[in-house]
């Protein structure tokens, strides 16, 4: 089942990309969260690479603020079509991802402390 989620891509301390997905109750709630989170990250000196609302069937564990980098062991391929929306695909162990940020769809290889839920 599709649900409205907020996708955020940020840079990690080692130059990698972090992905977070947060469920929203509605597209309007997602947009409000997107604006607030983007402002907070920007004011903290770490503006998001991307903050976008969209629909996804993928369910991840809740985002926990302050997750240490060594706990970000889950890897994802994030596709961003120029027309909007996104797809987040969990990578299996040994599965590779080649970034292509200028392609259409743009591809980002990211990691996260969030894992896929059984119903995701």
Low-confidence runs:
none
The arrangement of helices and strands along the chain is EEHEEEE
From the alpha-carbon coordinates, what is the Rg to the nearest angstrom? Answer: 14 Å
Number of helices: 1
- Helix/strand-derived class? alpha+beta
Helix percent reads 10-25%
Strand order of the largest sheet: 2-1-3
Q: Tell me the β content.
A: 25-35%
Q: N-to-C terminal Cα separation, in Å? A: 9 Å
How confident is the prediction overall: mean pLDDT?
Answer: 92
The total strand number stands at 6
Question: Mind describing the biggest β-sheet?
Answer: 3 strands, antiparallel
Shape: globular
Short description, anyone?
With 120 residues, the protein is an alpha+beta fold.
Task: Give a structural overview.
The protein has 120 residues and is an alpha+beta fold. The chain is built from one helix and six strands; from the N terminus they run E-E-H-E-E-E-E. It has one helix at residues 27-43, and strands spanning 3-11, 17-23, 50-56, 74-80, 87-90, 106-112. The strands form two sheets. The chain has a three-stranded antiparallel β-sheet with strand order 2-1-3, with helices on one face. Strands 5-4-6 form a three-stranded antiparallel β-sheet, with no helix packed on it. The longest helix has 17 residues, at 27-43. The radius of gyration is 14 Å and the shape is globular. The termini are close together. The relative contact order is 0.25.
